[in-house]
Design brief:
The chain is built from 18 helices and three strands. The chain is an all-alpha fold. It starts with a helix and ends in a 14-residue tail after the last helix.
Length: about 400
């Protein structure tokens, strides 16, 4: 079989694995929502009406559960575990004609998301997965709806005030990540899931839409920090900086989450949107370093998942090739597709229900389960399937 046939076979096998485990939750984190997303995309690009029907059934079950209060686990308003994830996915499916849905019927939910995001900014929770940036990213995809625009403008105003208090910089501390025990007080994290890369990428999208946001001082500051502190052969970009202690931490890994690709992505996108070629020039100085991390050992991507694993790297390189057209990213995408397939071939089916796996992950999880791998492999199978990754800021 050729690689495309192998990918198709593997996608069907992953769907079968997911179907063996009862679905007990609804949210994007590990439930019907991410299963529906992977079913809709698989149905369209594998031309399988049964999978499309499964997507519709799962979505219907989610709304039934919300109405009856049964089984759903939308415990917050956040993107990964709450209602922002639901509205973002439904809006995405509507945008690309997977479903026909009147988004105005979710106005009460949108209002709740806005109120929640407003309070999160007050508490300096700028997390993408669990905080205000997930809501702002969703609202940015709902424009030009006037009510949504008013929500978005109010949230942006609050962040602009925080930037003004930070000497005009958007290098802001994410208190959610500190409370989670993942970083120290004063530490600014450059990742996409929990750091400032998500904010900068969403802001760049908004600037393209005509919003006035002063980002160049922040991008210049990022470059300055990297010019000062990142000189060794292994590290392409710094991972975080602590404003209080001036401690610099290095990541040195490649992946979707907390990765050198995140800063690289910000620079390449900023070069285009802000029309500053020097940003791309600086980014490409690190190109060989980044794509040269092409083994499991050099990236620490020892699992096939979307968040920290091979599937996430595979999807990221597909997106960067789309963004820039640089052939190095296409080569890297093809290499990491093969790494993903090789890792899957080394996993036995019973691993997905083993205690070892379930202590850390769940088979129905978007970021560390089967759905995210399916979606990434679909991009490798048919490049037209890449649009799903808009939901995780690869747009």
């Amino acid at each position: 079989m050729n690689t495309r046939d192998i990918i198709r076979q593997k996608i069907y096998h992953l769907h079968a694995i997911a179907n063996q485990v009862p679905v007990t939750r609804d949210a994007l984190s590990q439930g019907r929502l991410c299963l529906a997303l992977s079913a809709f995309y698989s149905g369209r690009y594998l031309e399988d009406e049964k999978l499309t029907a499964t997507g519709h059934q799962l979505l219907e079950e989610i709304f039934t559960n919300i109405q009856t209060g049964k089984q759903n686990n939308f415990t917050t308003q956040s993107f990964l575990s709450g209602m922002t994830g639901l509205t973002a996915v439904v809006n995405h499916l509507t945008k690309y004609s997977f479903v026909a849905f009147d988004m105005s019927s979710l106005s009460d939910i949108d209002a709740s998301i806005y109120q929640w995001a407003d309070s999160q900014i007050d508490g300096d929770n700028i997390d993408f997965l669990y905080g205000a940036m997930g809501a702002i990213a969703y609202f940015s995809q709902r424009l030009p709806d006037p009510t949504i625009q008013s929500y978005l403008e109010a949230l942006l105003h609050k962040l602009q005030l925080k930037s003004a208090d930070n000497n005009g910089s958007y290098l802001l501390v994410n208190q959610f990540y500190i409370k989670a025990g993942e970083q120290e007080e004063g530490q600014v994290h450059f990742g996409i899931a929990h750091g400032i890369s998500s904010m900068l990428l969403v802001f760049l999208d908004l600037i393209k839409m005509g919003f006035s946001i002063s980002l160049q001082p922040t991008i210049d500051q990022i470059i300055q920090y990297n010019e000062q502190h990142c000189h060794d052969d292994h590290h392409a970009f710094i991972g975080s900086i602590n404003h209080r202690s001036n401690e610099i931490l290095y990541q040195g890994r490649i992946g979707w989450c907390f990765s050198e690709l995140n800063t690289f992505h910000v620079l390449l996108k900023a070069a285009q949107v802000l029309q500053v070629p020097a940003y791309q020039t600086f980014g490409y100085r690190k190109l060989e370093n980044i794509v040269g991390k092409n083994t499991i050992q050099s990236t620490r991507a020892d699992e096939p998942f979307l968040c920290h694993g091979a599937a996430g790297i595979c999807q990221y390189y597909a997106y960067l090739h789309q963004l820039t057209g640089h052939p190095a990213f296409l080569d890297a995408h093809q290499l990491w597709t093969q790494h993903t397939l090789d890792q899957l071939n080394n996993i036995t089916d019973d691993y997905w229900t083993s205690r070892e796996y379930e202590l850390k992950h769940h088979v129905h999880a978007l970021l560390s389960g089967v759905p995210g791998i399916i979606l990434s492999l679909l991009t490798a199978y048919d490049n037209k399937a890449k649009n799903w990754s808009e939901l995780i800021l690869l747009n």
